[in-house]
Amino acid sequence: MQHFINVLLNGITQGIVIAAFALALVLIFRSTRIVNFAQGSQAMFTTYIALTLMNNDFPYWVAFLGALAAGFIIGAVLERVVIRPLEGGMELNIVIATLGLYVAIQALAAILFGSDYKSFSSPVGVQGFQVGDLNLALTPTSIFVICTVGVVVVGLTLLFQKTQLGLTMRAAAFDGEVSRILGVRVSHLLTFGWALAGLVGSVAGILVATGSFIYPSYMESLIAFGFIAAVIGGLDSPIGAVVGGLILGIVNSLVSGYLAPGLVTIGAFVVLIAVLLLKPGGLFSSTQARRV
């Protein structure tokens, strides 16, 4: 019983981290209808910025906010400098550009920060709780991760459903020409969408690093699982990203805990295929939305 409980708790924690990254992907797609393959490299780079601040005696929370600010700025700059000139051409050009950014940012991080493993401390404990005779795979760091992602989910849901800015961003993404005719400054909204996604991606990068080690390619597995989770939930649904992340995290933990760690990737793709066969648009996305 203890093993099952720990496997489940570990899956929930993994799923929450996957969900955080999937949220960043959903933000880009929801506001620009673009899938950003460089999102993981952006998150990795801002995590290194946070670590640099911490190594220079800045508190964890100052470094955390510094990484979020860096993620916001990097997202805006990339949209203006790299993505904006490619708009109006083939959509494949933007996809290739984001893949190029993925490689370039990772290489830049290796040059600036080195390729060695570096410890990233946690602001809270990493020792698991004990309930009676049970040693739970649940730590204060896990609770911190869960609560942080919860705040992000609530904030994004309120932004897109309850604010004029969020509704305008969605309208501009679905039909930019009509939005321009109505006086909406679409270019500014697209930049803000990339910036906001960069900020959320930075949250994911820090959460997966907290209490662990980082190196230039430490986000690679999370990138793959984040894309799968976003597609499972529906690329235009923040709630779907969270549900998809939780499903994937629990499945991955069950496969690793009861079968073999080497089968985790296969298990993830089996879940993806099963969901797409039942609902091609994802669990929380309508077919109409996905065709746009």
Automatic annotation (TrEMBL):
In what way does this protein cross or attach to the membrane?
Answer: Multi-pass membrane protein
- Name of this chain's protein: Branched-chain amino acid ABC transporter permease
- Compartment annotation: Cell membrane
Q: Which family does it belong to?
A: Belongs to the binding-protein-dependent transport system permease family. LivHM subfamily.
Q: List cellular component terms (GO).
A: plasma membrane
| Principal cellular location given in the protein's record | membrane
The record's InterPro entries line, in alphabetical order, gives:
ABC_transp_permease, BCAA_transport_permease
Q: Which organism is it from?
A: Mumia zhuanghuii
- Any one Gene Ontology molecular-function term assigned to this protein's record: transmembrane transporter activity
* Pfam families per record: BPD_transp_2 (PF02653)
Where do transmembrane segments lie in this chain?
7-29, 58-78, 90-114, 134-160, 189-215, 221-251, 258-278
A biological process (GO) of this protein is: amino acid transport
- Organism taxonomic ancestry: Bacteria, Bacillati, Actinomycetota, Actinomycetes, Propionibacteriales
Q: Which UniProt keywords apply?
A: Amino-acid transport, Cell membrane, Membrane, Transmembrane, Transmembrane helix, Transport
